[in-house]
Amino acid sequence: MPRDHKCVSSIRRFIRDLTTSEIAELLVSELTTNALLHTSTQAIRITATRDDPFLTVEVHDTSDTIPKITPADPSATAGRGLAIVQSLAHSWGWRPTPTGKAVWFRLLT
Q1: What are the backbone dihedrals phi and psi of residue 49, each rounded to the nearest 5 degrees, phi first?
Q2: Buried-state track 58-75, b at ≥16 Cβ within 10 A, e below 16
Q3: Structural contact between residues 102 and 94, judged by C-beta atoms closer than 8 angstroms
Q4: Which of 12, 25, 63, 87 is a plausible cystine mate for 39, CB 3.0–4.6 Å?
């Protein structure tokens, strides 16, 4: 997907076509938004695989910055994406790739 915030809705539709999980849609939206906001990557790649009973989604970008959960100011309007992923996913993490990193989550479906 090109670096464009308008593409987040397309990515959500892609995940919706794979599963009826609103949680999966929310989590992919959070990871995609993070990739757009916190990296200078020109394109984002999304992969999704099923290994029943799990759905694993990866968001690939070209940054090597390690994602980390930081406490959000209660009055802040942003900064809770990874905390949301951590609280709703079965598991989540990141891995280095030859071109940057992939941030992933696994969700029971």
Answers
A1: -135, 150
A2: bbbbbeeeebeeeeeeee
A3: yes
A4: 63
